[in-house]
Amino acid sequence: MQLPKIILKSGKDQSIRRFHPWIFSGAIKKIIGDPVEGDTVQVFDNDEELLAVGHYQPGSIAVRILSFDDSVPDEAFFTEKIRNAVNYRRSIGLIDNPAVTVFRLIHAEGDNLPGLIADFYNGVVVIQSHSVGMYRNRELIAGVIRKVLGNRVSAIYDKSSSTLPHMAGIAAADEFLIGDSGPATVTEYGLKFLIDWESGQKTGFFIDQRENRRLLSEYTKGKSVLNMFGYTGGFSVYAMKDAGLVHTVDSSASAVAMADENVRLNYGDDPRHRSFQEDAFKFLGNIDGKYDLIILDPPAFAKHNSALANALQGYKRLNMKAIEQINPGGIIFTFSCSQVVSKEDFRKSVFVASANTGRKVRILHQMTQPPDHPVSIYHPEGEYLKGLVLQVE
Predict the structure, then answer these.
(1) CB of 114 closer than 8 Å to CB of 200
(2) Other CB atoms closer than 10 Å to residue 45's CB: what's the count?
(3) From its phi and psi, is residue 63 left (phi > 0), alpha (psi between -120 and 50) or beta?
(4) Which of 78, 129, 287, 328 is placed for a possible disulfide with 134 were both Cys, Cβ 3.0 to 4.6 Å?
(5) Both 177 and 275 in a single domain?
(6) How many helices (H) and strands (E) does the chain have?
(7) Is the entire prediction scored with pTM above 0.85?
């Protein structure tokens, strides 16, 4: 079958020759054929030399590149890519590791599968398609994951209804593609978490903060800890190992309830922990002198470049409130998960926040996502998570 062709403008082939996995709409000279969203297309330069094959979509990112040759996304293609992703996780000690039964199995561009996310939850794999092309291949992908992982997988759940492009017009239903399962209990460095992928954010848990949670536990001994935007209590559970007290704050009643449940799962009804359902900025308005360690892990303040300026102001305000009020010698773990906010932008916002308070602040650690969320060197946009550990005098 003849695939539709995307012909690039003269000089617009340089990024793809450097293996960047996106073709932007402004680089396209003409389209031969009539592709609809999700179709597989071939990409050619202005002299009609074949450069790549990818999934087509209308919009700013017009093609997500799957191969830089003439390979098409069939079962053999997905089997090779997914097996490579699994073997990589095995090499970093995440396959068949009883101490860590939750990790990212496939990380989109980082695993050369743009538009596809898959997370492993103690035998249940939750997949999300961020492109129609991947969504149309979801059953094939689920079958390949099951084949590659064998009896390590008991069920595969598709949770793509909230991640597909809005303009696609697909009424996707979240559903099990293989098997069935209720919420799972997973283990992360000996701590247990209840995961509800059906109602939770993302695929059910913020797996990308695993190593940063582990780092946090080195700083909590005897301290009063505030976990802002606490979601289901990941940082709180780690802090509870030896903190004096831990308070979890989130605006979502269901998230707060799950945080309480995760604390009970590990520590029983421990009076050191208390949760609050409240707006973060309102809560931070009156905490002066109450806390020795504060975690600021907000949702993405900017998902598009048009919101970048407001997002940077938001990070500045948030960090100012914390820096102003934390106890002398206090520690702040502060994060941004907004892809459009660069490390430099985020650090500048924290710098301005610090300077406005007049307090002395030093950086102890610079944080990012863990190795099961790899970043392709050709796709720096994949480094979305950035964080700082600050000490405030």
Answers:
(1) no
(2) 19
(3) beta
(4) 129
(5) no
(6) 10, 20
(7) yes
